[in-house]
Amino acid sequence: MTDTLEIDAAELYRLLAEDKITLVDVRRDEEVARGIIAGAQHIPLHLIPLKVDELSGEQPLVFYCHSGMRSAQASAFMASRGRQNIHNLQGGVLAWGKAGYPFVAKEA
User: Which pLDDT value is given to residue 1?
Assistant: First the structure.
């Protein structure tokens, strides 16, 4: 049994409106420079193992990337460390943009 759930862009938008999730963008710096989902923190995939403690807790944790593949890896890694309530944005920013949801500039 996996502790990772796939969610779509509409479900992520709803969760963001409730302001009760931790949203993590695992893309590379140059990808994030083109825009990020508002409220997300940027932790490139290769740094996730170093940030396990920062991503612990009970609050739902949502990962996303460009298409959903790297964020699925981040989700699986965190689940392997015992983290629960993990979500992966199905289709990544491609699906988010296609659904018409906005991007913002990454905060410094």
Answer: 39
Report the catalytic residues: 65
CA distance 108 to 99: 27
How far is Cα 23 from Cα 16, in angstroms, rounded to an integer? 8
Which residues does 62 contact at the CB level (< 8 Å), separation at least 6?
7, 12, 15, 21, 22, 23, 24, 86, 87, 88, 89
Please give the domain boundaries of the chain with CATH numbers for all domains. 4-98 (3.40.250.10)
Torsion-angle region of 12 (φ positive above 0: left; ψ -120 to 50: alpha; else: beta)? alpha
Tokens of 68: 């959903």
Query: What is the reported pTM?
Result: 0.94
Q: What are phi and psi of 103, to 5 degrees?
A: -120, 155
